[in-house]
Write a structure and sequence with these properties.
By secondary structure, the protein is an all-beta fold. The chain contains no helices and 17 strands.
């Protein structure tokens, strides 16, 4: 009985293991869902998008001077490959827009959604909208599945929205003080 090694996952290569007997002549034919796969007649086969959700197996035919026979490997369904996504997010100052950037070499072009969470005592919601207030947050990206890869979620990354610095008003003079109070009123001098 021939055996097949390798993962039944899109993009992976399967290899049939068959020990040839004496002077046998051996041929291989790979099948997808019971149908011959055109030009798949080697002892190895790389799984394609068309194979996903189909059973794949190989038939090994062996002949010698006195015998002829064919043996089939076990069938197994092909799965989508594992998707992946990576995220980065720079810290910003209050008033600037939070702009995470993502990359995926498996799920290119698929829809990406973000989830934000406040950390270090920063509360936040709703999680699908980028925060605007000063604080520390994490953001996680999820990429949708494609025809060949599963959906994937990134590791969370931390970023900060820093408080903006207030510029002190220019050209101020003391307008008045009250003798029994510790407060002062200021007014801006017009140039």
């Amino acid at each position: 009985m021939p055996t097949v090694t390798g993962s039944f996952v899109y993009g992976e290569t399967l290899t049939v293991n068959y020990t040839k007997q004496d002077d046998e002549s051996v041929t291989y034919q790979w099948y997808r869902g019971g149908e011959k796969i055109s030009d798949a007649t080697e002892n190895s086969y790389t799984l394609t998008a068309e194979d996903i959700s189909k059973n794949i197996y190989v038939i090994v035919s062996a002949t010698d001077e006195w015998h002829r026979g064919a043996m089939q490997s076990r069938q197994q369904e092909v799965a989508k490959a594992q998707g992946s996504i990576e995220i980065a997010c720079e810290s910003v100052t209050y008033g600037e827009t939070v702009q995470p950037s993502v990359s995926s070499n498996t799920n290119e072009g698929a829809n990406v959604t973000y989830s934000y969470v406040g950390t270090d005592g920063t509360s936040y919601g709703p999680s699908n909208e980028a925060p605007e207030n000063a604080g520390t947050y994490t953001v996680t990206a999820t990429v949708a599945e494609t025809a060949t890869h599963t959906a994937a979620t990134s590791e969370p990354v931390t970023f900060t929205i820093r408080k903006a610095e207030l510029a002190a008003p220019q050209n101020l003079t003391l307008a008045s003080t009250a003798p029994d109070k510790a407060t002062a009123t200021w007014e801006e001098v017009q140039n």
